[in-house]
Amino acid sequence: MIKLCCAAGLALALLDGSARADLHFPQTFVKLGEVFSGRPLRQRFAFTNQGAEAVTIERLEAACGCMTPSIDKTIYQPGETGSFVLEVNTLSQPAGPNTWRVRVHYGSKIQELFVSATLRSEIKVEPPKLALSTDGVLAHDVVVSDERALPFRVTQAHITLAAPGDNH
Q1: How many CA atoms lie within 13 A of 127 on its CB side?
Q2: Cα separation of 21 and 24, whole Å?
Q3: pLDDT score, position 162
Q4: In 3-state terms, what secondary structure has residue 100?
Q5: For residues 121 and 37, is the Cβ–Cβ distance under 8 A?
Q6: Taking a C-beta distance cutoff of 8 angstroms, is the pair 107, 20 a contact?
Q7: What's residue 163's pLDDT?
């Protein structure tokens, strides 16, 4: 912040020592168009530290559990560029238009970034992920549907049972 003051008729500009961290993101909203559900969706967000001091990225906050943001480095010097990757698990998302948000926390600032896509589901597995635990008999339906012109045919299905105490 710059403060202006006058002393004996002279105008002086004083810096109060609170130089601002400033990350610049050339793309804050990325439109990907049509994406097939079930395939990994990865978007890289680039940025530049345009401030006068080093910037520390404190955290990347995904708006839902379907997203995994990852960054290799967290401190960026003035003028330095960097990027992080946002991965979206599209299998657990509904077909149709979707928008995902991630927040970049640095200094006292928060930058929101968005990725949008229209998900097209040709093959659906419901539920997309299933973990069951029991000491007795347990049953759960898994529905697989194929909306392609020439659908696949299920010829076999296998299950894996974890031994007690196994973390798989």
Answers
A1: 6
A2: 10
A3: 67
A4: strand
A5: yes
A6: yes
A7: 65
**CB of 84 within 8 A of CB of 69?**
yes
pTM score > 0.85 for this model? no
- In angstroms, the Cα distances linking 140 to 27, 133, 135, 136, 143 are 43, 11, 15, 13, 10
Report domain extents, the chain. 21-120
Residue 91's φ and ψ, nearest 5 degrees, are -65, -30
Pick the CATH number of 21-120 from 2.60.40.1570, 1.10.287.70, 2.60.40.10, 3.40.30.10: 2.60.40.10
Alpha carbon distance 71, 131 (integer Å): 29
Give every residue of the chain whose pLDDT is below 70, as ranges: 1-21, 128-129, 162-168
Going across the sheet that includes 23-24, the strands are 23-24, 41-49, 81-88, 67-70
The pLDDT, as a whole number, for residue 15 is 42
**Helix (H) or strand (E) segment spanning residue 13:** strand 10-15
pLDDT in tens, 74-114: 999 999 999 999 999 998 888 899 999 999 999 999 999 99
Joined together, the tokens standing for residue 14 give 């004083």
pLDDT of residue 91: 83
